[in-house]
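Re: that backbone. Tokens:
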């Protein structure tokens, strides 16, 4: 399974107006891939919608990216769309495919730009650290870009901001998180709290 993670910057207050068009676009008969999540930014970047879709293979992903590039109405919300970013991702080895369900409603989406040449080291450190961290709470996905800047993105669902703070504090106190040496591999770090929209299969 491969993934596309798209960030749509919308006009202020336009998210409710844009959602019907986004839903129609990803469910169109010509669309490739499956909608997994659609979140609105709550803390961090504002006036943004994040759309996560899964693809069976690289051919399907490339075909959908081409459809978006050539569309006169990308994601069905051109009237409200200020900026669009799309990245293609592969999951870290041995991680299961994303399952949809009600795991939130608070989703933490963290994204890092990695220094050049460090992906094998990052994968190794994360594979060592994840088993202990997953005993504390669910992870939705850890993935890296397969084109463009070397980016690492991971998504964590929580029932509340309070639960997030409690679990992250416990992980640090126990010494199981963050992965050892991780900061040495990262150039740029970004984080945000996102809430599922009405069209999101991930709740």
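Recovered sequence:
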């Amino acid at each position: 399974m491969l993934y596309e993670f798209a960030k749509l910057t919308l006009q202020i207050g336009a998210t409710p107006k844009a959602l019907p068009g986004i839903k129609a676009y990803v469910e169109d008969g010509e669309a490739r891939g499956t909608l997994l999540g659609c979140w609105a930014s709550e803390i961090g970047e504002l006036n943004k919608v994040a759309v996560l879709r899964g693809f069976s293979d690289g051919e399907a992903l490339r075909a959908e990216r081409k459809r978006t590039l050539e569309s006169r109405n990308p994601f069905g919300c051109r009237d409200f769309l200020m900026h669009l970013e799309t990245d293609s991702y592969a999951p870290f080895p041995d991680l299961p495919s994303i399952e949809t369900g009600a795991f939130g409603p608070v989703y933490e989406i963290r994204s890092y730009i990695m220094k050049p040449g460090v992906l094998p080291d990052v994968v190794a450190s994360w594979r060592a650290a994840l088993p202990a961290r997953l005993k504390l709470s669910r992870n939705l996905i850890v993935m890296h870009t397969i084109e463009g800047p070397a980016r690492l993105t991971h998504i964590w669902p929580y029932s509340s901001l309070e639960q997030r703070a409690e679990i992250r504090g416990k992980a640090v106190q126990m010494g199981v998180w963050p992965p050892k040496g991780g900061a040495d591999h990262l150039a740029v770090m970004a984080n945000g709290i996102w809430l599922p929209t009405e069209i999101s299969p991930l709740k």
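The first strand starts at residue 2 and ends at 10. DSSP finds four helices and eight strands in the chain.
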